[in-house]
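Below is one protein, fold included:
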Amino acid sequence: MAKIEIYTKATCPYCRRAKELLASKGVVFDELPIDGDAALRDVMIQRSGRTTVPQIFIDGQHIGGCDDLYALDARGGLDPLLR
């Protein structure tokens, strides 16, 4: 099974939507909350090149944010990555 990492903030509605989609696929993911954790936020920015949350990685590959995740799913590209 794929290793899924998602950088989040507690109050982020896009983070919630992304986690809901992943949960609906029945996959386990590592949630990395960056609230108040400047060092972890810096790691997220370094890995993704982005400052917004969520930032999603599947097997080390940067997927992007919530909209990117939903777009990947809509074109049939998400399920193969989750296996």
About this structure: Strands lie at 4-8, 30-33, 55-58, 61-64. The mean pLDDT is 97. The chain is about 45% helix and 20% strand.
